[in-house]
Amino acid sequence: MVTQSVRSARCRAEVIIAAARGVGAMEEEMHTDAKIRAEIGTGCSPRGPGCSLRHFACEQNLLSRPDGSASFLQGDTSVLAGVYGPAEVKVSKEIFNKATLEVILRPKIGLPGVAEKSRERLIRNTCEAVVLGTLHPRTSITVVLQVVSDAGSLLACCLNAACMALVDAGVPMRALFCGVTCALDSDGTLVLDPTSKQEKEARAVLTFALDSVERKLLMSSTKGLYSDSELQQCLAAAQAASQHVFRFYRESLQRRYSKS
Amino acid sequence: MKETPLSNCERRFLLRAIEEKKRLDGRQTYDYRNIRISFGTDYGCCIVELGKTRVLGQVSCELVSPKLNRATEGILFFNLELSQMAAPAFEPGRQSDLLVKLNRLLERCLRNSKCIDTESLCVVAGEKVWQIRVDLHLLNHDGNIIDAASIAAIVALCHFRRPDVSVQGDEVTLYTPEERDPVPLSIHHMPICVSFAFFQQGTYLLVDPNEREERVMDGLLVIAMNKHREICTIQSSGGIMLLKDQVLRCSKIAGVKVAEITELILKALENDQKVRKEGGKFGFAESIANQRITAFKMEKAPIDTSDVEEKAEEIIAEAEPPSEVVSTPVLWTPGTAQIGEGVENSWGDLEDSEKEDDEGGGDEAIILDSIKMDTGVEVSDIGSQDAPIILSDSEEEEMIILEPDKNPKKIRTQTTSAKQEKAPSKKPVKRRKKKRAAN
Fold first, then answer.
1. How many pairs of residues across A and B have Cβ atoms under 8 Å apart?
2. pLDDT mean across residues, chain B
3. Which terminus of chain A has a smaller tally of CB atoms within 10 A, N or C?
4. pTM for the whole thing?
5. ipTM of the complex
6. Candidates 3.10.180.10, 3.90.1300.10, 3.40.50.300, 3.30.230.70; CATH matching B22-280
7. Which is one Gene Ontology cellular component term of this protein (chain A) (predicted)?
């Protein structure tokens, strides 16, 4: 019952569905993919057959106290998000016509510093763009993120975890959003979803937050040196990658809410 | 957020149930909830779930100079954080009492019991020692934080591997994990805290209270013990008065429980060790149960980026060139330059209404004509039209300049309408002064 959207004959993502569902239909596609898979590494040239996203996993509703919670794993990077809201807000922080969105990011080791504050702000701006705050004026929606392990693409993983947790909490949103990280290494090769080693060796690391309706850009955070055309290339690649992330969201929610 | 108060009927219900030896989740008086331990990919990272209470533990190490009075010992640092996602009431300023109590108890349990051999953490006596830092984060609060935290701390310490160091005479070599396998810490014993909650002035006792039971309890007794039945720490809080035999009975129960928990921990560590050695998959991704309907996994997904170059070129070709912004600096006098035109002053309206009141006032109100940002030419035009202008002595007053051929009164109404048109920019006044000096 899973609908597959096929972008091109050459590009198909393989999806592992639980044993409860039939795997038969997927098998034919697996054979054609076998050829493509053999060529795939984690890096590629801009004209290459394809970069790849790491193994994804998501678990929702794993904590009992928060209204919504999600744990998002991308390869070895893991972030746990908890959402409380809409809930009571302090009078000093209340906004008369919409919800006050607060994002808290806690690193695993040490006390939170300026880097965490700046990431919190980026995530908050992204969430504010999609959350329908005007439906819950004078309330607070708090998103708490805990870094469980960091192995590259941390900001993108935080964005994804925040989105899944907001969905789990039932906060009304106008679209889903996802985060994708691209790294450009010294010879201009584009790598999607880089590991921490690739990020360290890259010339530029760009993170984009894209929305699910038209894959428009909600937030971008970049570090390093890159040209105009490289920026547009990374953005286009991120948009292509976001297709897969949104499909992952859709399938995980289908699994949870479908009756079969 | 304020903590939701416990209703009276809930409190009565819980107490009555406890009197009848019944617990809400069906456990017996001395039963622990299910403990689940999972490890991450880095050494020293673990998540412990005691029922629904969840704690994340991470151990890290650093080379530092030792404390002055303990030159040959390493440093241990414990930090338990009550994350805001654990309970809505945990706000940064609000949880200090509980936080201090838990941190202190954890420190006494782990540091004072000398479970870690700090002498082995010394690298160069008096100069370099290892500082081991244990960070614990409470992720979900469903009661009995201290037990879960102590289990997480000791598991993380047992799981942790520090980089290997070799000292040859004066030379100290620190090996990276790739050069030499990291070595585990030397741990003498594993102290684990067991909590006992007392109700009705010590009449009834429950082991491992959950959140509701903690709310209605009278007092708490925490005993930290290791599997050799040595008590490492004991703490009674809440002001209940316990009899000697009650405490002894609790310590016996604690002995049994600690033995079970220690066995569980050792098994979990062994499993993880085995998986890592065999090269299998380890980490949190593996601990997500496949059968759960709320969990979903996707394998590595290839992305077709063959058309990104074409797309990018299209976008750049279609995009309008960025608007011409005056970015060249204009030098007025040596030491004074201007880049750009600045934004329109939105205080102008307020100024107008004030100045209309004091007609006879000292300073004349003068209003600048609105100038568009990309016409730097107008700047010089206005300058040439300068009729004698009275400049205010006060630096603080907003200076606005009349167009010489227009009547002041007329200007006021006109410029208010100009302001309503939302003129894009207004020259900063100080520049005008300097310009006159230059002229």
1. 207
2. 81
3. C
4. 0.77
5. 0.80
6. 3.30.230.70
7. euchromatin
